[in-house]
Amino acid sequence: MAGRRVSFASMAADPVVDTPGVDSPRSGSSGSAGPGDTPARWIRTANCLPNPRNPRDDLGDLSDLASIKDRQLQSCLAVTPAAYLRLWPEDRQALGAGPDDVVVINGNRRRAAAQLYGREQLLVVVDDSVAESKATLLRAALDENMARKDFDPIEEANAVLLIVAQYPTAKEAAEAEGWSQSWISHRKNLLKLHPELQRQVRAKARGEEGVSINVARRLGSVKGIEEMSLAEQTAQLEQLLQADADAVAARRAAKLGAKAAAPQAAAPVVTPTPVQAPTPTPTSVQAPTPTPTSASAPTPTPAADRSEPAPRSPQPTNPEPAPSADRFSAENSEPLPMPEQRAVAPVGEEPAPAAPQPGLGNVDWHNVEELADAICRTLSADEAYRLADALANRLLTTSS
Questions:
Q1: What distance in Å separates the CA atoms of residue 156 and residue 56, rounded to the nearest whole number?
Q2: Cα 37 from chain centroid (whole Å)
Q3: What is the pTM of this model?
């Protein structure tokens, strides 16, 4: 049974109450087990003896069990005095058991509340298999108390170490009871502290001022803590608390520093750009358009290739300012190179007189490539585009 919680329901073969939560004690029940009796039976409260090995030092306030005077919602687990005394014969005189008595292993608070509030009988499951060893009996008593929120850590540690003492080693105890060795060590550390510090641990568990369980366990792990006096253990406790406070302050400062640095890292670095007054864009220099001779008249386009020209949008009189250089657009991108293109006068300056170029009169007007080169050397890119548009319009107009 070691390592398992005790199931009262599995021990009772037959129901002993007519309605859940309502007692139906058998009339004339004397508490002795007769033929046909089930393991669960009604026993006089006076014949239910408390467990001398109960892990609880103090049963606490019993007011939450006042209703037990009218009904018992949960049975008690008990063993016969003979089964108990086989394990601890030294308790015979203290136990003082009679022939009709049982020893309550699980349910000592219910037994005490029944005595306090005047209940005459208790429903008890008597099962001597719980007393097959000291470890199984102690574990049965521990399991019920561990489920209670007011079972303080020092009581728990005493009960656990008492169970561990029934095994050759702590490792075997951990394997048999389903505990880890570190879980056992944490509770053992609490018992290394001075009784005064243990009292403070109990007070903290009750919600009062005291020492927390985690701090107490760490204090109990300090080397040589068992040989220290109360003053020395208290000094070690103060150092431990100060180290914890310093660690919390360091984490808080690091968190605040990270929060302060985050906005600075996220803010973009803005470089101020000087604002310049807008300057009117100068008008491009128009070069005279040569009038072709009769010999250079363009060849009419076949009728199948002619189409009506799309209406041209008028040129704006006040062009918008040039786009910013840090944003890509057709205006600020590099234009395709043109052969020996004539430069446009810088903004704000008068256009310089055009340098004498080889005259268009020296160009073979029948050689289109040579004519295009001469036009590009003479005109700017804008002027060349406007010339091309004008020629296309003129061609379409004369052809129609």
A1: 8
A2: 56
A3: 0.48
Q: Give the span between the Cα atoms of 361 and 290, in whole angstroms.
A: 9
| Residue of 343, 364, 360, 361 whose CA lies nearest to 352 | 343
Say if CB 77 and CB 40 are below 8 A apart.
Answer: no
**Residue in this structure with the two tokens 């037990």, named with its chain if needed:** 68
How many other CB atoms sit within 10 Å of the CB of residue 46?
15
Quote the tokens at residue 363: 């160009």
| Mean pLDDT value across the chain | 74
Which has the higher per-residue pLDDT, 217 or 360?
217
Geometric angle at alpha carbon 374, from 370 and 377, rounded to 5°:
140
Q: Give the strand order in the sheet containing 102-106.
A: 40-44, 121-126, 76-79, 102-106, 48-49
Q: How many residues does the chain have?
A: 400
Identify the residue whose tokens are 């009996």: 137
Look up residue 390 and give its two tokens: 């004008």
Using CA atoms, how far residue 142 sits from 27, 151, 179, in Å, is: 34, 10, 13
In angstroms, what is the C-alpha Rg of the chain? 52
Residue reference for tokens 């170029």: 357
Q: How many angstroms separate the CA atoms of 234 and 302, rounded?
A: 112
CA distance 185 to 217: 9
Tell me: pLDDT of 346 over 80.
no
Task: Measure the CA–CA gap between 217 and 240, rounded to whole angstroms.
Answer: 11
The encoded tokens of residue 371 equal: 């004519």
Question: pLDDT (tens digit, 9 = 90+) per residue, 244-253?
Answer: 899 999 988 8
What is the percentage of the chain residues whose pLDDT exceeds 90? 32
d(CA 374, CA 147): 104
pLDDT of res. 368: 72
Angle at alpha carbon of residue 354, lines to 351 and 357, rounded to 5° = 160
Question: From CA 6, how far away is CA 105, in angstroms rounded?
Answer: 11
Query: 3-class DSSP state for residue 91?
Result: helix
333 is written with which tokens? 């991108």
pLDDT digit string (tens) for 24-55?
A: 444 444 444 443 345 789 999 999 999 998 88
